[in-house]
Amino acid sequence: MGLLSIFGANLAIDLGTENTRVYKEKEGIIINESSAVAFDTRTADVVAIGNSAHEMYGKSPENIMILKPLEEGKIANFEVTKIIFKYCIDKAIEGFNLFQPKVVITAPSGISDIELRALEDACTYSGARDVYIVESTLASAIGSEFDISKNEGRLIVNFGAGSTEISIISMNGIVISKNIKYGGDYIDQEIIDYVYDNHSLIIGKNTAKEIKETIAAIGEVTTYDELEISGRDVMTGMPSSIMIKTSDAIEAIKDTFNIILEEIRYVLEKNPPELSRDILKNGIFITGGGSKLKNLNLYMEKELGLRVVKSENPFTDAINGAGKIISNLEEYKKIGK
Ligand SMILES: Nc1ncnc2c1ncn2[C@@H]1O[C@H](COP(=O)(O)OP(=O)(O)OP(=O)(O)O)[C@@H](O)[C@H]1O
């Protein structure tokens, strides 16, 4: 048996509110699945994990409960976190390995020491030998090929499902960061409420998400789309369909984006003046799945008066960065928590 098969490969795990990704050293991203876990409430057994659990949403009997590890950018359920970690490690490391893998995991910045230790324990319990925790913003910056060791400020906004994280980084660290609950899930709820109030239709989360991802936009757009959606009529309780337009979606989500802009302005105001020049030069980097919202970069540029650069790989910047860290652990060890 070769030395490699004794030690096995090391892993990086980006545990997200909606999606979890796993990077295996020398192979790249090998898992990209929903973070959902389905339980049978009668027996407390886990009946499905990942995409197969996600597919049960809204279609399963009452005894099936679907839970996720994170909510609003915070660890909401450690049991579910352990189940996801174990699922990822078992799936990534098949067969016999004398030594368990070293694992890098991403965590929201601003995570408390207690949460940090609990996250570490959950990963060790699930089969990791050593656990290194890195803030997701730093992982995203590394994944986007920024040289984070430079004495140069960068403003990164990560539009995730559970939260939006606004951070300024410089010299291998986070200078200032704000994690706010206005992520993709919050925006989906705004769309659900808008459709209820203005079209008397009750729609599900998946429909709201489809509206957001296909026809929604923010700011002044030149092209308008529409989408036929179905739900339950508020008055009759019967199934019903309507056409929903880009203008409806903008109306539904614009207040939330005004708040996000306010929070970005707040972080910019708190930024040390020496770094402001760098941010003027580099602009704002946006990543995370929510950064794909139509017109978001132009809207932010107009409102903030700064250049906005969209990530080319918004879903995988963090896991690619975490993957680079696990593959070059000695070089990056100092940035871990
Ligand atoms: N085209 C799109 N327009 C707007 N939002 C989108 C689009 N595509 C995906 N999203 C949203 O991106 C979010 C998922 O992004 P991502 O996978 O980065 O989140 P996550 O890592 O699971 O969450 P978090 O970082 O908050 O833990 C979802 O809310 C999804 O609806």
TrEMBL record:
SUPFAM superfamilies in the cross-refs: Actin-like ATPase domain
Protein residues bound to ATP: 161-163
Keyword Transmembrane: no
Entry annotated with the keyword Ribonucleoprotein: no
Alphabetized InterPro entries for the sequence: ATPase_NBD, MreB, MreB_MamK-like
Compartment annotation: Cytoplasm
Keywords assigned by UniProt, alphabetized: ATP-binding, Cell shape, Cytoplasm, Nucleotide-binding
Reported function: Forms membrane-associated dynamic filaments that are essential for cell shape determination. Acts by regulating cell wall synthesis and cell elongation, and thus cell shape. A feedback loop between cell geometry and MreB localization may maintain elongated cell shape by targeting cell wall growth to regions of negative cell wall curvature.
Protein family according to the UniProt entry: Belongs to the FtsA/MreB family.
Assembly information from the UniProt record: Forms polymers.
HAMAP family xrefs: MreB
Name of the protein: Cell shape-determining protein MreB
Species of provenance: Helcococcus bovis
Gene name of the encoded protein: mreB
